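Tutorial handout. Part one gives the primary structure; part two gives the three-dimensional structure as tokens.
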Amino acid sequence: MRLLRSFTVLALATLPSFVHAQRAGLVPAASTLPWPPVATFSILGYDPTTGEVGGAVQSRVFSVGNGVLWAEAGVGVVATQAIVDVSYGPQAIALLRKGVKPIDVVKQVWEGDRDPRPVDWTKFGRQFAVIDAQGNVAAYTGPKATDWAGDKQCTYCTAQGNILAGPEVVNAMVKAFEGTTGHLSVRLLAALEAAQVAGGDKRGMQSAAMVIVKKDGGVWLHNDVVLRLQVDDSPEPIKELRRLVEKAASMRRPAPRDNY
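Part two.
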């Protein structure tokens, strides 16, 4: 297996523009923000055996799948969360489509953010992650994302979250992804489950989603969507997501290399 480099983008927090914003009083403490913070954790991953790339997310918000995950077969997957600017998703996909590396995608998208609402929706609170169709990853967690917030990478995956119990949540996600065998959907699901066992969201659970793509990988002709699942409102969204993943697996015609 050819190992591909993984990246985490942390230096953005020390950009001169951040220092200027702090001195100007444009970056408020999370406790003073006039909107309720949304707790979210997600994982993006790649399977070099099948060529599939995907992501999964859980959040204490209604219908998290409608805004966090963005994917295009042969291009990559993006997760945008915390103080969300949904445009990060399509912007990042467009750059990946041009062949821009994930670490540069993160840098370009964040630096291009004009921060139109610095007081109540600051760009320094954004969190987003990128994985390309070859499994290269990068992530950014802003210094104003609500604690605990952070990200962790491994070969072929990146885990990130905010308002979490602590760093053990993202650590558990990566460990579960690397230690689980089988279809990519099973590995992504295992990461979410491990995150919840490790403490998960401090505010609880409400919704979950998963998307996996591959060129012509779907069940219909010219269908690039291997799997797209959403649990919009549930007291146990990860449990319901498991039911859907297992249902999909039971209907999928397994290839000899798949291990369910």
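Part three, for discussion. The two ends are 21 Å apart (CA to CA). The domain at 11-251 is CATH 3.60.20.10 (Glutamine Phosphoribosylpyrophosphate, subunit 1, domain 1).
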